[in-house]
UniProtKB/TrEMBL annotation:
GO cellular component: plasma membrane
Signal sequence, renumbered to the chain: none
Keywords assigned by UniProt, alphabetized: Membrane, Transmembrane, Transmembrane helix
Keyword Membrane: yes
Membrane-topology annotation of the record: Multi-pass membrane protein
Any one GO molecular function term: transmembrane transporter activity
InterPro entries assigned to the protein according to its UniProt record, in alphabetical order: MFS (IPR011701), MFS_dom (IPR020846), MFS_trans_sf (IPR036259)
Name of this protein: Major facilitator superfamily (MFS) profile domain-containing protein
Transmembrane segments: 43-61, 81-101, 108-126, 132-156, 168-186, 198-217, 292-312, 332-349, 370-390, 396-418, 439-460, 472-491
Domain Major facilitator superfamily (MFS) profile: 43-494
Cell compartment(s), UniProt: Membrane
Main subcellular location of this protein, as a coarse class: membrane
């Protein structure tokens, strides 16, 4: 609505209203929103392919647990530490990557991240000890995590809000395939060539992705649409104007003006990494209750999916006597379920958003997306609990596969990416933080990293002392909390968000 309370009647008026409340539609040169479908699809395919490689890197090690423990040698605790530190580093580093991306653009982030991940894989392959493997896996995590935050921001750069849910659903089919293919590839490579071959494979796909981004990727970042960048510019302008004014006053004894009495133009400002203070955007994101509730919700879901992938691999190895190849092949059920869930969830989210736009004359609010997660909120915990007792009873493998497929479909049950529930939750985080989308997603990975580190460190003791049935039952109640937080945000999120925006606008003025 405008100041009189009436709805905008045409596209021009709607764009004007949107421009007043955010910078998402600020005019820019070579607007990524106006690129051709082919150009947008190229960007989508590139970040999807790279994200699939990130998923492969994270999951490819799981089927090689026994081989690595025997060869290095290593204990179960050391191996679980390598996994938990990997996700912990993945949680912290996106904050730095997004800060760099807000001043230098998306492309430099992707290239540096891919280079770092590739070099780390080359170093891991010949490592003679578990200590070196853990250290370089952390370096590998530093590189691979960039796509967790910046990828979603890239989609926000090129697509309007009412199309993002579908595009994110399509985008996350690739990361879902990565963790699904990872165990299969890891199992096959370990069985045929030994566990070290899996990291040579990671180095090869990392190099291919690096070359593709270097040659084909067009940067989507526009500084005019970044609140972080604009805040830095305003701060630097105020500082330079003040310094110039004082200097001019001391030397000439009058105001900083030219011969005609007009204020001289501000010199061009060059923004560097030293100007970026990642703490302030983080503070602004965390001050919003709607962000906090969703960050905890997504963190719980992603912590669970890492736990289930690791613990199910241990169960299949110990109770079902599966080798690395069979463990990897069984894990494909996760990806297939999550693949369908991601696409369907994204389309459902966008459909609800478009319906609300029509009903409200083009005005929308991000909380509408969360309504598409309602069904998943009830089925998600049920599949978590059922999965535990199915494996506890050593049921037929077909029952295990069905449970894993259902869990992947309804919840992001798969490795560490997104299905029906999470695609809508992530799209909400992006839509609710215009101009700070990459920072908001980075905070999502931060919460995920902290919670996943804790869950992986406690996974083995819980599994050994409680068994799959009670361990997954406890997790069923924990993941129910994510659904409660989603429902709460659905009904209160708009109020919280508007209150925070009003407060920030008053402070800015």
């Amino acid at each position: 609505m405008d100041q009189t309370g009436s709805l905008p009647k045409n596209d021009a008026e709607r764009q004007a209203v949107q421009s007043e409340v955010d910078i998402e539609h600020a005019p820019v040169a070579n607007d990524p929103r106006k690129w051709s479908a082919v150009k947008k699809t190229t960007v989508l395919l590139l970040i999807s392919s790279a994200s699939m490689s990130v998923g492969i890197v994270a999951a490819i090690q799981n089927p090689a647990v026994k081989a690595m423990e025997q060869d290095l040698p290593a204990t179960s605790d050391q191996f679980s530490l390598s996994l938990s530190l990997f996700v912990l580093v993945q949680g912290f580093m996106p904050i730095a990557w997004t800060s760099l991306g807000e001043i230098k653009g998306r492309k430099i982030v992707y290239l540096l991240a891919l280079a770092l991940s590739t070099v780390a894989a080359i170093a891991i392959a010949p490592s003679p000890s578990i200590g070196l493997v853990i250290g370089f896996r952390c370096v590998q995590a530093m590189g691979s995590c960039a796509f967790l935050a910046v990828g979603a921001a890239t989609l926000a750069d090129i697509y309007e809000p009412h199309k993002r849910g579908t595009k994110m659903g399509l985008y996350y089919t690739a990361p879902l395939l990565g963790p699904s293919l990872g165990p299969i590839l890891g199992g096959g490579l370990t069985s045929g060539f030994g566990w070290r071959s899996i990291f040579w494979f990671c180095a090869i796909i990392g190099g291919i992705c690096f070359a593709a981004f270097l040659l084909l990727f067009n940067d989507t970042f526009r500084k005019e649409r970044s609140l972080t960048y604009q805040a830095i510019v305003k701060q630097r302008q105020r500082k330079q104007t003040s310094e110039n004014f004082e200097l001019q006053s001391k030397s000439a004894g009058h105001d900083f003006a030219d011969a005609n009495g007009d204020i001289s133009p501000t010199p061009e400002i060059k923004i560097t990494f030293r100007d970026v203070n990642p703490l302030k955007p983080i503070y602004l994101i965390l001050r919003r209750w709607n962000n906090l509730t969703m960050l905890f919700a997504t963190g719980i879901v992603l912590a669970w999916q890492l736990t289930i992938v690791y613990t199910i691999a241990r169960t299949l190895t110990s109770r079902y006597n599966y080798d690395a190849w069979k463990v990897g092949f069984t894990s494909l059920a996760y990806g297939v379920g999550a693949l369908f869930g991601s696409v369907i969830g994204g389309r459902l989210s966008d459909r609800m958003l478009r319906k609300t736009m029509v009903e409200n004359g083009g005005l929308i609010h991000p909380e509408v997306r969360l309504k598409s997660t309602m069904l998943s909120m009830f089925f998600f915990p049920a599949f978590v609990i059922a999965g535990g007792w199915v494996t506890q009873a050593h049921a037929h493998i077909v029952a295990v596969i069905v449970i894993l497929f259902g869990g992947g479909f309804f919840s992001v049950h798969l490795i560490r990416y997104f299905s029906m529930m999470y695609s809508s939750m992530l799209a909400y985080i992006v839509d609710a933080n215009v101009g700070r989308s990459s920072g908001a997603v980075a905070m999502s990975t931060f919460f995920r990293g902290i919670l996943a580190f804790t869950s992986l460190e406690t996974a083995v003791p819980m599994q050994e002392h409680l068994g799959d049935g009670w361990m997954y039952t406890i997790w069923g109640f924990i993941v129910s909390l994510s659904g409660i937080l989603c429902i709460w945000t659905t009904y209160k999120g708009a109020e919280w968000r508007q209150r925070a925006e009003d407060r920030e606008n008053k402070q800015a003025n």
